[in-house]
Amino acid sequence: MFEAGFLPEGAITCDVCLLGRLVTVDFLSKVDDFLLPEEEEFPIRRVNQDRGDAEEDKAELRTVPHPLKDWK
Fold first, then answer.
1. How far is it, in rounded angstroms, from Cα 70 to Cα 72?
2. Calpha distance 15→46 (Å, rounded)
3. Kind plus residue range of the DSSP H or E element containing 12
4. Cβ count within 10 A of residue 41
């Protein structure tokens, strides 16, 4: 009977995770639905200044091994 108390708690956790997945934007290039153009440009400019990779790369078979070799 004690374990039944964890079922609603787990269900709420799963619901929050699913809701978060629907709300979270995958990449900066996909934010054009709800941001103004100048608001969209700001984080792209900041990421480019910081890391230089704000543009989304296409995943190709030849590019996959490189990040997998970096175990930092």
1. 6
2. 32
3. helix 6-23
4. 12
State how far the Cα of 37 lies from the Cα of 42, in Å rounded to an integer.
Answer: 9
**pLDDT of the chain, 72 residues: tens digit per residue:** 667 889 899 999 999 999 998 888 777 666 666 778 788 888 888 888 888 777 777 778 888 888 788 877
Contact 53, 29 (CB under 8 A): no
Domain positions in the chain? 27-56
Pure H helices in the chain:
6-23, 37-50, 65-69
* Contact present, 54 and 48 (Cβ < 8 Å): yes
pTM score of the predicted model: 0.45
